[in-house]
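Chapter summary example.
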Amino acid sequence: MAAKKGTVPFSGTKEQEEALMQAIAELKDEKGALMPILQKAQDIYGYLPIEVQKMISDETGIPMEKIYGVATFYSQFTLNPKGKYRISVCLGTACYVKGSGDIYNALMEKLGIVGGECTPDGKFSLDACRCVGACGLAPVMMINDEVYGRLTVDDLDGILAKYD
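The structure predicted for these 164 residues follows.
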């Protein structure tokens, strides 16, 4: 199955699969085991692709629908890999009224991905968030733990170039 545009094809290793199977074996008989299993799986793989969800389903007997429902309901889980540089644009009220929507749209265009996706080279991923607590610097984005404030669309090329 070919990966859709903006996603990195799944490429789990044998070591990762063995670690997942060990985690499932340790946790599957506990009440409420799905959440800790999903957390371990995401720790191992960095995200929860459909292939990993299927392994969890096969090993635990939990239906795929339930696993997918939990994985998409809780914001701590991601179905897509994250890039080496995780870009998060604040779309909270203060940032949005000062133009963060334009910044988010410009980043999607420059990176060739939509929110929630990762560039094919695995370098950048892009997400929106609701507030980073830096409203006085609006509009704000973060790249990993670095905060960039009082942004304009014209600032983006220079900022992205720092990560080459």
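To summarize the output: The mean pLDDT is 93.
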